[in-house]
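Render this sequence as a predicted structure.
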Amino acid sequence: MNATGEQGTHRTAERVTVAFELPTTALTVVAAPPMRVSQKTCEHALGIPKRVFLDSLPAYRAGGGEVIAHGKLRLVEPNAYLGWLRTHRRVAAQVDEAAAIAAELGLRAAGKRRQPKTLPD
């Protein structure tokens, strides 16, 4: 219905109003991507579990990433974080490859070696 209570088309000098019905299954709602992602929204927005996200933030910050602390929330810009994450995974893969080559040669690291945290695929 339009402003005058009539169904159909109503035309004024500057506007045209058309009334029609659509099933809700015919609509797709598209939301803008988030400007910041926190531990509360990381699983939905990035597909990363909360604990893994929080554990990765010190390394992200050390690598030059911006982490905004607002109370208990830790906020990051999603595109920058994902870019860092891609680079970080490549470095972790190279470290694992070097360890595999050393193992083939019968070498092992002296002392205690800290295992890098792995992120889900």
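Summary. Residues 39 and 95 are 27 Å apart (CA to CA). The chain has a mean pLDDT of 78.
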